[in-house]
Amino acid sequence: MESLYDVQQLLKRFGIIIYVGKRVYDIELMSQEIKNLYDSHLIEQQTYLKAWAILKREHQIELSREDL
């Protein structure tokens, strides 16, 4: 797993499709869903941490774009 698309595909495997309309909000909601999957023991810790790191990176990128 290396990209936001990969995280979306992971969520899709569990029937979770997220589209709010604003990318930064999509990323925030994905973070919550990934945490819920981990807390429910549906994904392993390594998968959770990798997805969380990707989402955090993408969130920072989106915030920096908004500041311009």
TrEMBL record:
Question: Which domain of life does the protein's organism represent?
Answer: Bacteria
Which Gene3D superfamilies does the record cross-reference, listed alphabetically? YqgQ-like
Pfam families this protein is in? YqgQ-like (PF06014)
Name the chain's protein: YqgQ family protein
